[in-house]
Amino acid sequence: MAKFQSLKEAVAENLRDGDTVAFEGFTHLIPHAAAHEVIRQGIKDLTLIRMTPDIIYDQMIGMGLVKKVIFSYAGNPGVGLLRRMRDAIENSWPRAIETVEHSHAAMANAYEAGAAGLPCAVFRGYRGAGLKDVNPSIKSVTCPFTGEELAAVPAHRPDVAVIHAQKASKRGDVLVEGIIGVQKEAVLASKRSVVTVEEIVEDFDDLHPNLCVLPHWTVASIVHVPGGAHPSYTHGYYDRDNAAYLEWDKISADRDLFTAWMNENVLDKGPEVFADRVKGL
Amino acid sequence: MTSLSDFTPNEMMTIAAARALSNDDVCFVGIGAPSAACNVARLTHAPDITLIYESGTIGTAPNVLPLSIGDGELCETAVTTVSVPEMFRYWLQGGRISIGFLGAAQLDRFGNINTTVIGDYHKPKVRLPGGGGAPEIATSCRQVFITMKQATRGMVEKIDFYTSFGHGEGGNHRERLGITTQGPTLLITDLAIWKPDPETKEFTVVSMHRGVTRDKVQETCGWKVRFSERLEETPPPSELELTTLRELQARTEKAHGGKKGS
After folding, report:
1. Interface pTM (ipTM) of the complex?
2. Checking CA distances to A91, which of A176, A254, B101, B134 falls within 20 to 30 Å?
3. Contact A180/B81, CB-based, under 8 Å?
4. What CATH architecture does domain B9-255 belong to?
């Protein structure tokens, strides 16, 4: 049953050292504010799952909170590479991280299998692809009906899913709109979930019946954080802050600059700053 | 801005790639150079082409090029936006895509692509972003088109990692792996148009863009280039094609504050 909480309470109650956590959002609705709270609380030894690790994973990795990343595309969207993640992979700074790499199809199927309560996902994939040779969790199965060889990967079953969404109703139902990514699957595949929202409304009575809604009893904690996806965007509320993504390329290029930026903009701030950051976007 | 009779190699590449697409195509659009080509096709000779981005947007018609594959405008202008698992399961794996359009960091003569690492996978010299949707785009779409700028760094004798499978070691290698789709059928660079040899599957230059020499194509390619016996010259961009591309890029730069979309 969804609880309405402060971000501090929601993160403290749901995330523990050593947890496997999926912060999802496919370039849209990326839960920046929630990730920053995790960094402030110093929750460590995390295994992070994400199709498209971007700035927030770069930040958590750069702050030394991550031991392993399971992913399918690690880039700063539209800009280039993730410099903190690269520094960890190439130079073990600030600590070595383990990586488990998949294709998007495998990751999406693995979330869906997790949501469906299955132990693994089966799909037509990885044919001729090099990832099969470097990721031992990519296996194959033979279709018992046709004999076709198919790829199999373990289902994602995170301890916690963290997402950002447009609205919650007072009862705690959550509405996700626009590019919905894998958020529904990530929440349903996880033991617990933290959802930050732009707005809390009375009810969802006048909504179209087929929208993407997570019922209140599938969500652990809801937090009202206007602007909580910045510099990502929230469809219907504010646009992507493209300049911030470009700026990150410079900040993340240098260890000292990165550390100073994190102190000033994350460690010394709280979730209330996000509403201001999206003004004018 | 250059005049209409004067075009850059990049413009020629985008326009030649756009021409390869038809009105009936359902095209899975990769990040980077493919996106400009697909949208120029839509804005010129193929107004009804279905463009699909892996973020789940189907039948999208953006007014400016997106900065990322998940920009809001892709969703706002789409016929429908589906979840990412649905995109990969029903639409891509389901065999509903005619053309997968990919870019490449490293490419070999058989259309195998690397966007994962430079150097050894476990001790990379450069860690690139990775494959994203490409491994399955390369095998599930009926055909694959590739577009990239020629450079010896990118077009190499041997790629460091098989992010996505083209024709493998050539010949019937796809068939031997149980892949039933055609794989790479077209490579469009800033200098030339290449097609795989029907038997060996090695990319062969079938058309050079205006003003390009065989030496220039060879100098910027890391393998020994084969030229078709019936080598043609790529028709230069028409006024409509060039104007459409330049206006699209101008709108894009304005919308993204000077940053070129992809």
Report:
1. 0.96
2. B134
3. yes
4. 3-Layer(aba) Sandwich (3.40)
